[in-house]
């Protein structure tokens, strides 16, 4: 393991549960095939702003990323963006954010977004959103951080993924213990409540599990 990750990044992420100051959000650079996606994302952004919770996201101005940022800003919320220099050069960065952190590459971007947020929420998106979601959730399972991870399930978008996770559990590749740690909600207020009340599980390789057979991720 690289010394930077081992000695500085992972210890910084591995903090006890705390009140939500900011939530890191993963979502798509497209708007999808229905106006309901943008409407529900705007509603969530407004709920976060009303609760005094800042947003951390990828920094884009397009797709649901742009809807999220614009809606939170309009509601008076704090919005922090994190974007690699190459994408800023491609002129897709949002220019009206509370702050935009420009970083050298995607790896640094993900670490910075993880550091800034007290929870992770995935909205509808594509392959990039899935990649970010599963990294954050896996890090939680390994005890690298102790932050909740959630899906905001707009119009049943995440149901096929949830069925796949159930299959993983049934076939012995994902423990029921960790399957149950993933928060799934379709209402902003319910989501905020679940994030606030969430309790970190024991890490997969913690002392509590060291005397039993390894639990499948």
Describe, in plain words, how this protein is organized in 3D:
- 44% of the residues lie in helices and 14% in strands.
- It contains nine helices and seven strands, in the order H-E-H-E-H-E-H-E-H-E-H-E-H-H-E-H.
- With 217 residues, the protein is of the alpha/beta class.
- A seven-stranded parallel sheet has the order 4-3-2-1-5-6-7, with helices on both faces.
- The protein has a single domain, classed as Rossmann fold (3-Layer(aba) Sandwich), CATH 3.40.50.
- The chain has helices spanning 3-13, 35-50, 63-74, 85-89, 106-116, 127-141, 159-170, 176-179, 188-197, and strands spanning 22-26, 54-57, 79-84, 99-103, 120-122, 149-152, 183-185.
Shape: globular
Instruction: Summarize the helix and strand pattern as letters.
Output: HEHEHEHEHEHEHHEH
Quote the CATH topology. Rossmann fold
Number of helices: 9
**Which value, in Å, is the CA radius of gyration?**
17 Å
The first-level CATH class is given as Alpha Beta
Mean pLDDT: 89
Strand content: 5-15%
Just name the CATH architecture.
3-Layer(aba) Sandwich
